[in-house]
From TrEMBL:
Its main location: membrane. PANTHER family: INNER MEMBRANE PROTEIN (PTHR30566:SF25), YNAI-RELATED MECHANOSENSITIVE ION CHANNEL (PTHR30566). Residues 376-404 are annotated as: Disordered. It comes from the Bacteria. It is found in: Membrane. Keywords: Membrane, Transmembrane, Transmembrane helix. Residues 199-265 form the Mechanosensitive ion channel MscS domain. This is Mechanosensitive ion channel family protein. The chain crosses the membrane at residues 20-41, 72-92, 98-119, 154-171, 177-196. The lineage of its organism: Bacteria, Pseudomonadati, Pseudomonadota, Alphaproteobacteria, Acetobacterales.
Length: 404
């Protein structure tokens, strides 16, 4: 004799013992009693598992049991009640079928819900362990975070769709509709594909981003001229956090169809540039030594790249280009500001002749006289003026009209 047959026989004996009551009342009392027994049995089972897991030190399994205990208790109660429905002769056949399908529907939904919660706890535990591990560069951590988070959301959507679909198939009307839908799979797939084209595009883009990873969690990218950090990657969109705490909500397919800058794709280290505009009298060698002293006392500099170059010049100033490397983009920004402030302070205090200035030379030329050579105290070169021409206002009048 199988367990199910023995269980049904026990229930029939229970009903026979209370034969003096109406059949419907006996059935309801029987089902409620079985539900209470299953509930308290699952409660004691949960407490026993929690004590056992606390002794073994399994934190992840303990969290899974704590988060899914209510849904698991409900599943156990529903399974027991569904198993007892064949012995519920006090109810009509239609009522029994409705209760059975409803309980199966709820049980399937609870199974899918419990599976999603358990998978979410396992992924969070894995990400926490990865983030707490020591790495010289956080590229590995952010790569794992991106893959796990994107795949987690895709799996949750997939499990949710399958769970709801299986639960709905318990009803005859929905099952018949599903069969007819599969029979016309070509037209149905075309209609669904056209109506959900944007959703499917973003879902497939999410899978591709999880594999190729053009962006990762906490990557620093440039979008629409703004610095932004990748704060969250969902199955269909990406949340970008701007430096002033604004948020850009961008479809995930954008990062596969458009160009953008990723400053932390292979490494968080970056080289920053500082420009200074100085006078031609600026002592280049002395300022280069000043830069070396400033960089050595700055903790933001990583000690790898540092240079001082004359990048360009014009009629008034020379353009100084300073490059310095830092471990991240934020540190590079602070490093550039620090170098710029300290270099300006040193130039203003120790080398004021290096500050930009405009030169204006004034030479007084007498009419008809040659300008003498420039002396030592003069600041402008000599001017070789051509002699006045006849049409010039400076020319002396000649001829009959000039005799006057």
């Amino acid at each position: 004799m199988s367990f199910k047959t023995y269980f049904i026989a026990c229930l029939l004996q229970f009903r026979a013992y209370f034969g003096w009551l109406p059949a419907s009342v006996v059935t309801v009392v029987m089902l409620v009693t079985l539900a209470l027994i299953a509930f308290y049995a699952s409660h004691w089972m949960t407490r026993f598992l929690l004590r056992l897991l606390s002794r073994e030190g399994s934190t992840v399994a303990r969290k899974i049991v704590l988060s899914t205990r209510r849904s698991v208790r409900l599943i156990i109660v529903l399974v027991v009640v569904i198993s007892a429905l064949p012995a519920a002769s006090g109810l009509s056949w239609r009522t029994t079928q409705i209760l059975q399908k409803s309980f199966v529907f709820i049980a399937i939904l609870m199974v899918g819900y419990s599976a999603i919660k358990a998978f979410r706890i396992m992924t969070e535990a894995y990400l926490s362990r990865i983030s707490l591990s020591e790495h010289h560069d956080d590229i590995i951590v952010r790569s794992h975070q991106t893959q796990i988070k994107v795949l987690q959301r895709l799996l949750e959507i997939l499990v949710g769709i399958i769970t709801v679909g299986v639960a709905l198939m318990t009803f005859d009307s929905v099952r018949n509709y599903g069969v007819s839908l599969f029979a016309s799979a070509g037209a149905a797939s075309l209609i669904v594909g056209l109506s959900a084209r944007g959703l499917l595009t973003n879902l497939l883009a999410g899978v591709q981003i999880a594999i190729t990873q053009p962006i990762r969690m906490e990557d620093l990218i440039i979008i629409n001229g703004d610095w932004a950090w990748v704060e969250e990657i969902t199955a269909t969109y990406v949340v970008l956090r701007v430096w002033d705490w604004r948020r850009h909500i961008v479809p995930i397919s954008y990062f596969l169809e458009n160009r953008f800058e990723n400053w932390t794709h292979n490494s968080a280290a970056i080289i920053g540039i500082v420009y200074l505009y100085l006078d031609y009298e600026a002592p280049i060698d002395a300022l280069r030594e000043e830069l070396q002293e400033i960089a050595k006392t700055c903790p933001l500099w990583d000690g790898k790249v540092l240079d001082f170059q004359v990048a360009d010049c014009d009629a008034v100033t020379i353009k100084i280009r300073i490059i310095a490397s830092a471990r991240s983009a934020l540190k590079s920004w602070d490093l550039r500001c620090d170098i710029r402030e300290k270099m300006i302070k040193r130039i203003r205090e120790d080398y004021p002749e290096a500050l930009p200035r405009h030169r204006l030379g004034m030479v007084t030329a007498h009419m008809g006289r040659e300008v003498t050579a420039m002396g030592e105290d003069e600041i402008s070169p000599p001017i070789d003026r051509p002699p006045p021409r006849p049409h010039s206002k400076l020319a002396k009048p000649t001829g009959p009209k000039g005799k006057g």
